[in-house]
Amino acid sequence: MNTPSRSYSATMAAELSDVCDVLQKIASGDPFVRISEASDIEILVRLKKQVNLTAQNLLEIVDLSHEFAIGLAEHFDVLSRVAGGDLSARVSGSSSVELLESLKIITNQMIENISLIMAKRQNSEEKYRALVENMQDGVFILQGKKYRFVNESLARMHGYTVEEMLEMDSLSLVVPEHRELVIDHYRKLLAGEPVEREYEFDVLHKDDGIRRTINLSMSVFTFQGKIAALGTVKDVTERKNAETERQKLEHQLYQAQKMEAVGTLAGGIAHDFNNLLMGILGNATLARMHMDSSHPGYERLKNIETYVQSGAELTRQLLGFARGGKFEVKPTNPNELIRQTSEMFGRTKKELTLFPNLQNDIWMIDVDRSQIEQVLMNMYVNAWQAMPGGGSLYLQTENVILDSSFTTVFSVIPGKYVKISITDTGMGMDENVQKRIFEPFFTTKEKGRGTGLGLASAYGIIKNHGGFINVYSEKSKGATFTVYIPASDQKAGNDPAPALPQIQKGSGTVLLVDDEKLILDIGVQLLESLGYQVVTASNGKQAMEIYSRCRQQIVLVILDMIMPVMGGSETYDKLKAAHPDVRVLLSSGYSMDGQAADILKRGCNGFIQKPFNIEQLSRKISDILQTHPMNSDSPL
Fold this sequence. Notes:
Helix content is 50%, strand content 19%. The longest helix has 53 residues, at 237-289. It has helices at 4-27, 42-83, 98-134, 152-158, 162-167, 179-191, 237-289, 296-321, 334-348, 369-385, 404-407, 431-436, 454-464, 517-529, 540-550, 568-578, 594-601, 614-627; strands spanning 138-143, 146-150, 198-204, 211-223, 226-235, 329-332, 352-358, 364-368, 391-402, 415-424, 468-473, 479-488, 509-513, 533-537, 554-560, 584-588, 606-609. The protein is rod-shaped and about 195 Å long. It is built from 18 helices and 17 strands. The chain is α/β, with parallel strands linked by helices.
């Protein structure tokens, strides 16, 4: 028979065994196990309740962990889709887990922000790409020698497609002689060395191989994790060409201004020298006239006269350079001038072969024939001297019409011109020689072989005819002198027969006006030897006074151009206004330049250039007195 104490202990032991069994199941992860709480032992009831509560809590923890794991898995899936570029992905659903709800809000907000940033970036990239693609300037990204990006403008600039340029070596675009420059600049830029931000060099176009000049600006940056250069390219070919042309025009203008200044100086020198030659020639002539031809000094005096004439020829060349005047201007066929002068020149220079190419319907030119012949002969001689071993001389004429863009730099008017080209196959000239070729006394010839006045004289003569001369030459490649002379609307005239060199005497009183005592002294003697009486005046004011007193006796006034107090032009105008029938022979050490020509147009009766001999003086006076008779109240 069991005692009560043994029964109580057995019951507790059995129930504790159930509790341990349940605890083991809970410990193994079974949150659904339960234990009956019915018991007569209070402590076990409380213990069973605690065990069941533990199992219940474990079940809640398991449910929460499962829900959290599912929520995290969804987050990871959404973030994975976002990382793959799907910005439409969002975390959905709701959870009792506060942490998951907070995480969902943060994740979705983060995706919204990323979407906004990406949209802005895409918009910015589209604007940037549109800007780059529509720029007139070329844009590129360069890594090493390869392009990583080029815009359409750069591709068109070089004549390639964008795809072709991305495959090519960037250095192949550069002309060979500029490649070292480009390589050195690129190396210094990448190395961080001081280098100009912009510089220029030449490239070749794919299709026509024409050189183009580009302006390149580059900076260094990181592109796709590697160092690269970002560059912009401007095609400056037209600007460079315009700048070169402007510099050329400025140089030509400077040359023209310099030649004008030198010409003024040369004209003054020639004028003074002619006055001296006049004194020498006059005295030699007077001495010879009073000497028998058998006298030992007679031939010496004739030699002096010859030498003076040679000196006068030099001053005529100087005056030609100084734009000395045209003496006898008339419509002339330039082809005839070239044929006659070239045939005469060719007969004496057998080592040259001449090739004329003359336009059949060539326009006439209003020129002093003898001066243009002088220009042509000077150029022939210059060409011959450039071909010491012989060569070819090409002569060409052409009708041309020049516009203001061509004529402005030469200070001539646009219009119709006759173009005369003289091309030799000689040694040519470098740029420095070309700059000075028309300067008086400049010569590349040996001492004694030239005066340096031939081309200078040609330049002045053509300039005075309203034209200009252009020259092109390269060393060892010959030279081309191109003469432009304004065309005439008139037909060619006939040349008068040359006058015979003889002295023609006369009578009456001549008023000789000159500020040089030397000229007055010799002039008086020459005129008296011709049979005239002479009164003199040293300036225009004196001449006016003398003529007013003695005009009934004075048959002719010989008037100097350049004088103090009152010059020849003003003196003539006042004489003509007061005495319309006055006869005036204009005299000057200058040529019949613009001022003298204007006086002749206003009615002056003739012009004679110093130094003149007694035959020339006598013919001029005789011609004026015969062709311009005075009124009935005059002495003749």
